[in-house]
Amino acid sequence: MRETEKNKKKRMDTDARSSKPVRDGKSFGDKSERRVLKESKSLKASKLLKASKELKESKESKGSRGSKESERYQGYQSDKPSKILKEIGRDKAKDKEKDREKNKEKNTKKLKKKSLCPVSARCGGCQYLDMPYEEQLKLKQAQMQKLLGKFCGVHPIHGMENPFHYRNKVHAVFGHRKGEPVSGVYEEGTHNLVPVESCLIEDQKADEIIGTIRGMLKSFKIRTYDEDTGYGLLRHVLIRRGFTTGEILVVLVTASPVFPSKNNFVKALRQKHPEITTIVQNINDRGTSMVLGDREHVLYGKGYIEDELCGFRFRISPKSFYQVNPVQTEYLYNKAIELAGLTGKETVLDAYCGIGTIGITASAHAGQVIGVELNPDAVRDAVQNAKCNNIKNIRFYCNDATKFMTQMAEAGDGVDVVLMDPPRSGSTEEFIRAVASVKAKRVVYVSCGPDTLARDLEVFKKYGYQAKSAWPVDLFPQTYHVETVVLLSHKKADSYIHIDVEFGEGEGKIPVDSIAKRAEAYKPKEKVTYKMIKEYIEAKYGFKVHTAYIAEVKRNLGLPMYDAPNAVEELKQPRKHPTPEKVEAIKDALRYFAVI
Ligand SMILES: C[S@@+](CC[C@H](N)C(=O)[O-])C[C@H]1O[C@@H](n2cnc3c(N)ncnc32)[C@H](O)[C@@H]1O
């Protein structure tokens, strides 16, 4: 009967167990063979058979209880493995490697499963993406409490109903990989391009258009720009969508103004996406990390989009700032205007005004509004926005906010309320000092940088402004960023005494005719100087009196004396005293000036 592989193995097991070299009183063969057998489970049967045979032979020929050979055998195991053992070792290592790979795969799968976005870790833009939204809000609330709680009460953060796909502005970097065009974002802190097909916080239509552009590049022979070599044309694509109007702006950022077959490209893109309302070519030939360059050509449409916010219509050019989350922005602006407490009479300054969104929204509640903004494109938009919304009580200035405010303070101009919305880097101490100089009663500070906000609140405190309340708004769900609006007002007197006074005749009333007399009595007295006394005496008596004589008379009369800055401890000559005539003249002068 043919011996089966199973039987062979069984027999071999028994064989191996029958010869047990003993080391240190322990059954040596037991352990090592079991280990070999355990390891062999994964080996093919033939290899296993060969291995066990050789092991058995080696033990049978050399092994005896406590012999040197057994020690040598032991040595074989650790230092000099036989060919077969080497093989076993290799297989074992391979198995281990396989296990490791499997575990790695499992873990990666687990990680991938955990994150809602496949590129979340490399992109780094959505730090809180895999946290339930309620948790995100709690965390942000706690952060704001920690930062701003020492200045004022912090209201509960205003979250979003649907915290996904809220971004109306999408920016994609273009590059290539293995000859294929790719688009996405730079890996956090690097210039390594992470391909992105779609993003959970970006507008989906914008992502779709970016995908279409990427797909068109090859057929139009448009090469993406290579940062290292400087070759290629397309660097970035920027898309802006008016969520209310539906208008879409596509900005193609190119490294050179020469854009071959641009008309056909634009035509083809519009055919695929008739919803695009305008296309602009922006030329950025600089080696900086700035996305947009200075030059622009409108390839199709009006070159900007319009959107509606808080009941007003706003035009937005490619380089102008516009809040990325319009749903939350409406709440933010309405809160800012509510906190400003406008009655319709105030002069309001909208500092860092962008395209004039906050100022225009406030204009209906104010006497007049002055907007100041550094970016000329945004100021142009702001002026047009005021015209298009038929706002007559607003003016815009293109200037640095600090310079403008300082000039206002120097000119003695007054402002009742300051609305300020600086970039993430915050404002300046000079600006805040000037706010105090123009005697602004209230300041409404809108900020997307909580740290710089806290820093500026400290400076405001120094200039007499007290933070009254803080209102965090979640403008950037899935990320760690928070927008906040804070109301500050100029400190008033610490306390007041309320006194009711009744004038007229009768008990407890103050007679009207005595008021003038009393007022005279309360009038602060003119300061009587030694010079005045001397001049009086010289004019009336015809002689001069020394300052020391006047001081002596005053001292003798018990009148208050002040430190004499030129007094010396030791006099060079013995002190002289005034004659009785001079003493009388001095007393007369003191009476005349109502000192006595
Ligand atoms: C956060 S945005 C706010 C814009 C506007 N308030 C809004 O809500 O749309 C900050 C604005 O400040 C402008 N800016 C930056 N530095 C400035 C400065 N030194 N002086 C004036 N404006 C500045 C930027 O161009 C940008 O438009």
TrEMBL record:
Q: Which GO terms describe its molecular function?
A: rRNA (uridine-C5-)-methyltransferase activity
> Which UniProt keywords are listed?
Methyltransferase, S-adenosyl-L-methionine, Transferase
NCBIfam families from the UniProt entry = rumA
Q: Which EC number(s) does UniProt give?
A: 2.1.1.190
Entry's Gene Ontology BP terms: rRNA base methylation
Instruction: Please give the name of this protein.
Output: 23S rRNA (Uracil(1939)-C(5))-methyltransferase RlmD
Mark out the compositionally biased spans (Basic and acidic residues). Answer: 1-42, 51-72, 80-108
Q: Mind telling me which PANTHER family this protein's record contains? A: RNA M5U METHYLTRANSFERASE, TRNA (URACIL(54)-C(5))-METHYLTRANSFERASE
Q: Which Pfam families match?
A: tRNA_U5-meth_tr
Q: Highest taxon of the source?
A: Bacteria
- Species, as recorded: Brotaphodocola catenula
The signal peptide, as residue positions, is none
Gene of this entry: rlmD
Disordered: region residues: 1-111
User: What enzyme category does the UniProt record give?
Assistant: transferase
Q: Which InterPro entries match?
A: MeTrfase_TrmA_AS (IPR030390), MeTrfase_TrmA_CS (IPR030391), SAM-dependent_MTases_sf (IPR029063), U5_MeTrfase_fam (IPR010280)
Similarity section: Belongs to the class I-like SAM-binding methyltransferase superfamily. RNA M5U methyltransferase family.
Which annotated residues bind S-adenosyl-L-methionine? Q323, Y352, E373, D421
Q: What are the catalytic residues?
A: C448
